[in-house]
Amino acid sequence: QVQMVESGGGSVQAGGGLVLSCAASGVTVSSAQTAWFRQAPGKGREWVASIDTKTYYPEGRPIYSDSVKGRFAFSLDSAKNTVYLQMNSLKPEDTGIYYCVAFIERTWVGWGQGTQVTVSS
């Protein structure tokens, strides 16, 4: 069973930064496709970034949504089986619950509680 446990969220002012962590079990992040999604209040889930170390080992060729490109960075630590999302220059529209998931058998799995990010102006 895949489990992804997010942490590192918090409240920051616009322009600040946070680093989100996601500890994985049931999947090896260094040989899988993983992603970050977010959900803003009253909105649906939005894809934020993906990394595919299964296809593009070891760098994973991270890709980002246009809304975060140049501000967020996706990385992983294979020894800790953990993925990270470095978020810089945060904006109020980045507010939401952030989830990390893995792509297994053609679907994103491991949806957990997520971690709340709140950016104030």
Describe the fold and architecture:
By secondary structure, the chain is an all-beta fold. It is built from no helices and 11 strands. The protein has strands at residues 3-7, 10-13, 18-25, 33-39, 45-52, 63-64, 72-77, 82-87, 96-104, 107-109, 115-120. Strands 2, 4, 5, 6, 9, 10 and 11 form a 7-stranded mixed beta sheet that branches. The mean pLDDT is 95.
Describe the protein's topology.
Elements: E1 3-7, E2 10-13, E3 18-25, E4 33-39, E5 45-52, E6 63-64, E7 72-77, E8 82-87, E9 96-104, E10 107-109, E11 115-120
Parallel strand pairs: 2-11
Antiparallel strand pairs: 1-3, 3-8, 4-5, 4-9, 5-6, 7-8, 9-10, 9-11
Q: What structural keywords apply?
A:
about 120 residues, mainly beta, seven-stranded mixed beta sheet
The fraction of residues assigned to DSSP E strands is over 45%
Q: Topology as H/E string?
A: EEEEEEEEEEE
Residue-averaged pLDDT: 95
Shape, per Cα inertia axes: globular
Uncertain regions spanning at least 5 consecutive residues: none
- Proportion of helical residues: under 10%
- The secondary-structure class comes to mainly beta
> In this structure, how is the largest beta sheet organized?
7 strands, mixed
Task: Give the radius of gyration.
Answer: 13 Å
Give the total of beta strands. Answer: 11
Cα(first) to Cα(last) distance is 40 Å
DSSP summary: helix tally:
0
Quick description:
This protein is mainly beta and 121 residues long. It has strands spanning 3-7, 10-13, 18-25, 33-39, 45-52, 63-64, 72-77, 82-87, 96-104, 107-109, 115-120.
